[in-house]
Every structure is written in structure tokens, then in C-alpha cells.
Amino acid sequence: MGIMKKFFSQTKKPEGFLGKIMVNGMNSGGHASLAEWGLGFIGNKRAQVSLDCGCGGGANVRRLLERSDKAYGIDYSEISVAKSRQTNAGAIRRGKCEIIRGDVCSLPFENVSFDIVTAFETVYFWQNIEKAFSEIYRVLKKGGVFAITNESTGTDKTSVKFSRIIDGMNLYTGDDMKALLEKAGFAGIEIHTHTDKPWLTVTAKKAE
Predict the structure, then answer these.
(1) Residue 26 confidence (pLDDT)
(2) What is the chain written as a DSSP string?
């Protein structure tokens, strides 16, 4: 495997030296702009408890803390978990944050636990996205919001190119995700696209 392919494959599960570089990059640059844009669609109502799935470097957990009393992050990469804990060390010490290593297809949380669940630049790599969506539906409170933000509409040329390089990467359009979310039981699904960039946010709710 070439060095570039090895590097970009780290987006799936960061490991080793290249994984550390990848995770550090997740907390800066265009990822920050993408996250702020995506969060704009979940409303301003303060949440009691939030969860970021595939939390990467932890920057988005920190953003959720700005609008939540407590925020959790989950990732199945040891490097991501370590970096996310470092990023949110102060909130963890204060009991406002927990970062857990785990699988989104088997979330280690009780039913109806979260007001907000987010997934930034991660659903491409979920091995069983239908199971993952069902798990998120299970842990979301009634009236809660699930927001998926991708730096790809699922059809843009750059992402199609990377999907051919990165093993296990699957692209989804807004309509693809809408169908999957409906199957999991979600309602009130909205598809948002950026005016200038191939960015996509899909929001869904668990009915009251």
C-alpha cells in the first residue's frame, strides 16, 4: 500500500504514527468550518446530554459542551479516544464529559439517554449503518435530534475518488440517508446542502 493510501485510510480507524497525524488534523482547518456549519441546523435549545459518535480528535465534543450540560464522545480508535480525552481534559475533570471507546453498532448507553446525537465525517465507515442508526434511535430521547454532517454530498468527484482509495468507505447522498433514517424510525428528516461546497447535513428527530 502506498504511503498516501495508508495515510488517507487512517480516516477509517486512526492507528500508529499516521493515525496521530490524522487525528490532530481533525481538530483544525476545514473540519472546524464544516462542524460549525453542520451544528447550525440543530437549533439553539440547550441540551442536557449530548453524544458525538466517531468523536475523532474531540473538537466536536467540545463544541457540544457549549450547548449541553454534559457531552459524551465515542470512537473505536484508541488514538482517537486518547486525543479526544486530551482535548476535553478540563470538562472530564469537572464531570461534564466522558469519552468512551466503543462501537456505534452497540452503544453502551441506556435507552432514551441523549437530547442530541451527532456524527461528523464518520458514517462513511460504519460497517452496518442500519444497525448504527437503530442504536442511535434507541438512545435518543423523544423529541431529540440526530445530525449527520459530511464533507460530501455522496456524488462529488473528490469524494468518489477517495472512496476508491480508502477501503471500506461508502458514500451516501441525502436521499440515501433519509431512507435509512426512516427505516430506523426517525421522522422530521431534513436535508441541507451548502451553497458553495459539497457539504451535506441531514437532521432527523425521534417523535415525541
Answers:
(1) 54
(2) --HHHHHHHTTTS--HHHHHHHHHHHTSTHHHHHHHHHHTTS-SPPEEEEEEES-TTSHHHHHHHTTEEEEEEEES-HHHHHHHHHHTHHHHHTTSEEEEE--GGG--S-TT-EEEEEEES-GGG-TTHHHHHHHHHHHEEEEEEEEEEES--S--HHHHHHHHHSTT-----HHHHHHHHHHHT-EEEEEEE-SSS--EEEEEE---
Strand partners, 114: 140
User: Is the model more confident about 44 or about 115?
Assistant: 115
Is the pTM of the predicted complex or chain greater than 0.90? no
More confident residue, 3 or 131: 131
Q: How far apart are the first and last CA of the chain?
A: 49
Q: Are 48 and 72 a contacting pair, CB within 8 Å?
A: no
Instruction: Please choose, from the candidates 180, 61, 171, 78, the residue with its C-alpha nearest in 3D space to the C-alpha of residue 117.
Output: 61
Instruction: Find the Cα–Cα–Cα–Cα dihedral 82, 29, 7, 161, rounded to 10°.
Output: 130
CATH class of 3-205: alpha beta
For residue 66, the cross-strand partners are none
Angstrom distance (rounded) from CA 53 to CA 61 = 9
